[in-house]
Amino acid sequence: MATAAEAAAMRRAVALAARGLGFTSPNPVVGCVVLDATGETVGEGYHQRAGGPHAEVHALRAAGERARGGTAVVTLEPCNHTGRTGPCAQALLDAGIARVVYAVADPTPDATGGAATLRAAGVDVEHGLLADEAETANTAWLTSVRTGRPHVTWKYAATLDGRVAAADGSSRWITSAASRADVHRLRAECDAVVVGSGTQRADDPHLAVRGIEGAAQPLRVVVDTHGTAVRPGARVLDDAAPTLVAVAEGVEPLPGVATLHLPYADQNADAEHLPYVERAPRAGGNDDGTSARPGTEDDEDRLEHRFTASGGAYRAQRPASRPGSRTPQQPARGLDIHALLAELHARGVRSVLLEGGPTLAGAFVAAGAVDRVVGYLAPALLGAGPAALTGGGITTITEALRLDVRECVALGPDLRITATVAAPGTKEH
Fold first, then answer.
1. Is the separation of the CB atoms in 42 and 66 below 8 Å?
2. pTM for the whole thing?
3. Which of 55, 95, 326, 343 is surrounded by the most beta carbons within 10 Å?
4. Which run of H or E residues covers position 229?
């Protein structure tokens, strides 16, 4: 049974692991603390970057000879394979570690088995200490291993009555500076930030991390089905971070821009006959309902599509044809969300921050591709304007996507609520 010193060391290891968020993909975040034979901390470390030394190696180096006969407390089962670095199980044996306490078993076929190797060599091994805390810290990587797609966090900002913009489309600013700064922390912890064509047209967003020293920049992804939203000179095309534009198959890419061609989402025949929900153009807007104002910051999203949603697909009314359009006439539906996530996963993306507006969010929800929701709620009421989520394939209360609230934090005048998708079968209380 784990000691109080080992429990304290595991809490420290979990905190250390979190320092690697945004830097280690496609590897996990891992923290390790080494205790000497008396239970005193003599070394600690975390996995700092993909391809670099693992957490155990950093901690063993810090401990030196004092590690011999001691205990290694680590958030993830020590690996048992040689990749860009050697197996951590062997490193622990070479250092003379007598006991290993780890929180979560490694689910990857090539790396698992470290615990068995250690036990076979006579090391005392214990599994499961603070497993829930350690799993939460590493949830993006674990989700990607178990599901074969990146972990998705949907972030939105809204008023207390659930509006992400006013009736005229204005939304700068719904939330406070403290909330907007916190969004950059979320970006820094994720491998990719995803928005849709509506947000791209309305805001000309930058999507890079600002105000966090040393932060790794995420891949900026714009879901631009018909290839009409990202234009030359767009802010996402600067050199602050890499950018990928996802378009439908057959759409001509913008020259010099990394482009991903994806299939349209599958829709059943009934969905093709659903009526569109029309929205009058906003004041000062273009004839396709998009904003005519200059691009603004991207922390609040506007609804820019006329939509319906069914069966995991989203359908966007095509904007009126314009000179220079790079796409032929296409079906009024969106890209395959699962195909998008599969392509991102193949590129090493293990965590996605979805910052798109209500339509794209609805497509992800309908596809069952949202794992966590982070809502920034401002103490304000608008009474009209787009809601935070549209569609999602939900038509009745029994189909509601139930969430488990994990955290409520005050940020200036706002409230940040973090929730995860509840286990299947969860009922309303």
1. yes
2. 0.81
3. 55
4. none
